[in-house]
Description:
Elements: H1 3-15, H2 32-42, E1 51-56, H3 63-76, E2 79-86, H4 96-105, E3 107-108, H5 110-114, H6 123-137, H7 148-159, H8 166-177, H9 188-202, H10 208-215, H11 226-237, E4 244-251, H12 261-277, E5 284-290, H13 292-296, H14 306-312, E6 327-329, H15 338-356, H16 363-366, H17 370-384, H18 392-408, H19 415-429
Amino acid sequence: MNPKELAQHVITSLRKGMPPRWGYQLFTVGHEKLIKGFKKHHMSQIANQGLILFINGSNGSGKTHLFRLLTEIAMEGNCLVSNVQLHARETPFSKFEKVFSAIVRNIQTPSMYEDVASPEAEPFARVLDEALFLQVTGAKEAVNEITNEQYHTVYQALMEDRRIDFDFRKIVAKYWETYVPNRPISHPTVREEVRGEALQWFSGEGTQQTFRTRFDVNKMITGETARPMLQSLAGFVGLAGYRGLMILFDEAAQAYQFMQPTERVHAYNNLFQLVNEIEKLPGLFLVYAATPDFYTNTKYGIVINSGLATRIGKLRDNKAPRAMDPVWNLDAKTYIGLDDYKQAAANIREVYKQAYEDEEDDLESRLPSQEKIGAYVEDLAKQHGDTAIPRFWRVLMRSLIPYFEDCLEGEIRSAEEVYEDVMDLLSREE
């Protein structure tokens, strides 16, 4: 998107009450120093060493907002991103093969993330394709077929890449072979069947006999192989031209409380091993977000695994998070205040100008001044209170575009009137 299109995307999304896919850095506040340090200390190193970051935050503290911001930054930094919701049943850390499957299913490239109107049923197929196209042509644009010579060249290069598990390489090679014409595997019916089975292998589906016969592999994605395969996945994304893979783990509230004790122990052991191994996994960046119980509960929090608790470290209770902290505590009392909200409103005013300045006459003079915006935010905050639900950030984001457009139409409503309308809308959306 060009700057004008990006600004219009942000405003259109906020007008609908939806978070924008792109453009968070245009208006977000309270994160400036944190994000600057994140880019400097974390994003700059992702291709050279593996990294892991933990986030603490109560429900409504802004974890989802921060995930969207980190996603945008990772995409801009030419990384793949996978966002995985951790549940006690569907994706427990005690069964890491299910977590690996979710990582593959939810993986996104920057172009896929931008093209929200056309979601892909098998997003990892795009990564497999792009890796082939890049090796063959030097670009990621799609080709319909490749020659025998081209296949032989990319096959040899793939098989010599020791970062990637041997069976992982075999599956990829067979998938790529479907692009070579005049082979039995490239017949349209067989081709689609083989590609589908290859994607099933990455998702831990199918039978070992099928894959041994069709792909000549011995391993499946299991609890024992899933973590090593994650290392292979991190190595493979480099073949597709990406600097790395960022995985955002969002733990469902109280997920570990609902596990059986043995499952919980196994889950924490898996996490502990990942924490210990991560620096040896270049190209992989894990972000693990959880509620406070995960860190502090004496019955089912990480304190039951002393090694893991020591490696992660303690929460900094009353200090805003810094980039190099092992845990970013979004519940820190000093994290965001009224001045930050005023700045966010001022930022969105600038985004609005950028979106429509050449379409609206005298837009600058018709929009409210910085002083009026500040007063409006103060009045809106008084209406909401410090502990009301939903969080004030959501109320503010929903109210600003109606406020600006009222001003453009010469209709001046009080913050109280806007607040009542917004709260009514939000209550109907719940």
